[in-house]
Amino acid sequence: MFALEEINNSSTLLPGVKLGHHIHDSCSLPAWALQAALSLVGGDMPSCNSDAKYEEEKGIGASKGDQPVPLIIGGCNSVTAQIVSRLLVPLSLPLVSYTASSPSLSDKQQFPNFFRTMASDVYQAHAIAQLAIKFKWTWVGAVVANNDYGLMALKVFQEGIQRAGVCLAFVETLQRENIASDAKRAALAIQASTAKVILVVTWYTDAMELFLQLEKLNVTDRQFLASEAWSTSSDLHQSTFSHKVASGVLGVAIRSSTLPGFDTYIRNLNPSLRPNDHFLKEFWEKEFGCSPGIATASPFASLPPCNGTESLWAVNNLFTDTSQLRVTYNVYLAVYAAAHALHYLLSCPDVNSSPGRNITCSFTNQIKPIELMEQLSKVNVTTPQGEAFNFQGADITAKYDLVNWQSSPEGQVQLVLIGLVNGFDLHLNESAIQWSTGSSQVPVSVCSEACPSGTRMATRKGEPICCFDCIPCADGEISNTTGSTQCVHCPSEFWSNAERTACIPRQLDFLSFNETLGITLTAVAVSGVTVTIAVFVVFLYYRQSPMVRANNSELSFLLLLSIKLCFLCSLVFIGRPSVWSCRFQQAAFGISFVLCVSCLQVKTIVVLAAFRSARPGAEALMKWFGPGQQRGSVCFFTSVQIIICIFWLSINPPVPQPDLEIPGLKVTLKCAMTSVVGFSLVLGYIGLLGCTSLLLAFLARKLPDNFNEAKLITFSMLIFCAVWVAFVPAY
User: Fold this and answer.
1) What does the alpha-carbon distance between residue 555 and residue 710 come to, in Å, rounded to a whole number?
2) pLDDT band at 65 (very low <50, low <70, confident <90, very high)
3) Left if phi > 0, otherwise alpha if psi is -120 to 50, otherwise beta: which for 438?
4) Pairing of strands 477-478, 197-201
5) CA angle, corner 718, sides to 717 and 722, nearest 5?
6) Does the structure show a pLDDT above 70 at 333?
7) Is 61 left (phi over 0), alpha (psi -120 to 50) or beta?
8) What percent of the chain has pLDDT over 70?
9) Which segments within 434-519 are labelled E, that is strand?
10) How buried is 569 (Cβ within 10 angstroms: 0-12 exposed, 13-18 middle, 19+ buried)?
């Protein structure tokens, strides 16, 4: 009514045309709304001259006589809007709703005649999902109405959170017909759940029943996220349990606006000035306890008459509070959208279509609903409040307020604006929020606490991804952030610290003379050298004795020398490897062993030759194995190994290199064999001499017992070959 009076008093919008109104109360029942719509489009109403037919279910449009209205403002909820819109589709008659928010109404294929000044629920559900993501609430419970409003909002919310690591702890539905039992079941689910943040998408009466059940269970530590259907309900935030159960509610609300002059308009209302307004008469009787004297049927017929001094200027209640107009502003926009569509439809085609000119040249024609619907889809104007307004299909640009229930110093709960939603964009003043705890500390709602550094998340079988265990990173892996889903391998030169939070350089390790093993090996080597020298001295002292001379003293001395070198070459493997020590290790190792095995082999050959020459006809055999030939054979066998070592160490020698393939903080610095061929030749040659010596000694095993050296050589070479076979693959 206020919007219509503004338009009728405007000199720029619909000049020369006066709009009236006709209101039907649908009582939020689709059947009543359907009946009202049928009466409006059928012309079954008192005739009016240039009147608007306007309904709660409101019909608006210029008409004459009993002509049907060309446009209806109504559909107080999504179900009603869908029913009425489908009814009006064959007539191509537009329906403009101010509270129907179902996303399905955006489908122009199903509802080509539908428009609304209320945003689709897609945007508020997306905004709530953004809040959950922003405050890192990964474990959220949901209580929704068991209808299109609640289930569709839940679906959009789930789509918004599924890629952000947010999970639903539980989902409970509320059926209005069974609200008592459903609310009790939902309250028990909230009490049993570890989720501290609860999304509630339902009508405010259902939310009230839910909070009453929570109060009975003494559940007071939950943070509630509210949909627009109850976030601004005075029945809720002014209730006795709001402080205890529902403090700190964070909700999405229909955007609020102010209408200049509306407060004065409301407070100047008086039944004496509007004798046909039955609603105002009933309100007057209930508010002031007196009858304004209008002769109409009234439930307060026994009341005394009013004295005429009653005024709404002294009344402060929800009816007179115009500080936050939400649905009211949507109705206001709907009326202005219809008025602008009428204005453009009634405009003369040969004159500029901007408001402000006389449009009566078109008024004699009947208004066709389909033409009005076309003009409505083209509306693109600026409202008296300076806001750009246009329809995008059936919808307008989504705008919401973000409100917070905060306790005032007087102990009352008041709504505080803490942010805005513009389309899919969220603008939030976090410092202005008062949470359910009564502080500015954001509540935590997680199934599992974020894994600390040094661990990774491991999901639990059969549970949502938000529920997980924290497993320490394996050796050589780290995680340096909280909530890591996987551990990262350290580079080969680094290893994880004890806490598995950082990669630290690996410590070089090598066999040193200072550690126990190095000291032990050195002591054994020195002891072996000492014993060998002692034997050498004894042999040298008794070198002229028959026993020493019969034992081939020169080969014995060379053998003792080679054994001493074998003991000493082990010392080269102790200490930090360097380029030259790596080369010398292999040369000393290869040549010392070849010298030792060569002496044994020549000894064996000499023994065999000596006993073979004792046979008839073989006397000349020993001349090929005299002292010179024996020394020459040892030198020859050894020189082959020297040549192999020279070529190997000249072309591709071993180099000091850390063994990074073996896990651990300490990495062994060793001489890496860059040439497998060279090393194989060195080992293979030693093995060849060892096998040859074993074979020759085996052939000499049956010599007379008084000369048992061949047997001892056979036993020694057997042990040598066995060790060699085990050593090569182990090395």
Assistant:
1) 14
2) very low
3) left
4) unpaired
5) 115
6) yes
7) left
8) 89
9) 455-459, 468-472, 477-478, 488-489, 494-496, 503-505, 507-509
10) buried
* DSSP state at residue 163: T
Provide the token pair at 96.
Answer: 């403009």
- Three-state SS string across 704-731, please? CCCCCHHHHHHHHHHHHHHHHHHHHHHC
Percent helix / strand / coil, the chain, rounded to 5: 45, 15, 40
Strands 399-407, 380-382: pairing kind: unpaired
Q: What pLDDT is attached to residue 703?
A: 66
User: Which helix (H) or strand (E) element contains residue 71?
Assistant: strand 71-73
Q: pLDDT digit string (tens) for 190-239?
A: 999 999 999 999 999 999 999 999 999 999 999 999 999 999 998 888 88
Torsion angle of C-alpha atoms 85, 86, 89, 93, degrees rounded to 10? -20
Structure tokens at 167: 């999970």
DSSP 480: -
Distances (CA, A) of 93 to 41, 60, 433: 9, 11, 45
How many Cα atoms are found within 13 Å in the side-chain-facing hemisphere of 662?
12
User: Which range, of 95-104, 129-138, 472-481, 536-545, averages the lowest pLDDT?
Assistant: 536-545
What mean pLDDT is predicted for residues 96-105? 93
Sign of CA dihedral 310, 311, 314, 317: positive
What is the rounded distance in angstroms from the CA atom of residue 473 to the CA atom of residue 468? 15
- CA 551, CA 703: separation in Å to the nearest integer? 15
Per DSSP bridges, beta strands 455-459 and 468-472 are antiparallel
Q: What is the distance between the alpha carbons of residues 133 and 127, in angstroms, rounded to a whole number?
A: 10
At position 634, the amino acid (one-letter code) is V
Q: What is the 3-state secondary structure (H, E, C) of 352-385?
A: CCCCCCCCHHHCCCCCCHHHHHHHHHHCEEECCC
Pairing outcome for strands 655-658 and 666-672 = antiparallel
Cα angle 128, 133, 136; round to 5 = 125
What pLDDT, in 10s, does the model give residues 541-575? 888 888 877 777 778 888 888 899 888 888 888 88
Query: What's the pLDDT at 704?
Result: 64
Query: Tokens standing for 637?
Result: 């066998």
Q: Mean of the per-residue pLDDT values for the chain?
A: 85
How far separated are the first and last CA of the chain, in Å rounded?
Answer: 99
Answer yes or no: are the C-beta atoms of 598 and 704 closer than 8 Å: no
Q: Which two tokens stand for residue 103?
A: 């996303």
Residue 621 DSSP one-character state: G
Determine which helix (DSSP H) or strand (DSSP E) holds 217, and give its type and residue range.
Answer: helix 204-217
Instruction: Return the closest-CA partner of residue 496 out of 680, 664, 706.
Output: 664
363 CB-near residues (< 8 Å, 6+ apart): 16, 17, 62, 346
667 φ, ψ (degrees, to nearest 5): -115, 135
pLDDT of 300: 56
pTM comes to 0.71
CB 198 within 8 A of CB 225: yes
Residue of 648, 661, 654, 724 lying closest to 692 (CA atoms): 724
Q: How far apart (Å, rounded) are the C-alpha atoms in residues 203 and 239?
A: 16
- Say how far apart CA 585 and CA 567 lie, in whole Å: 12
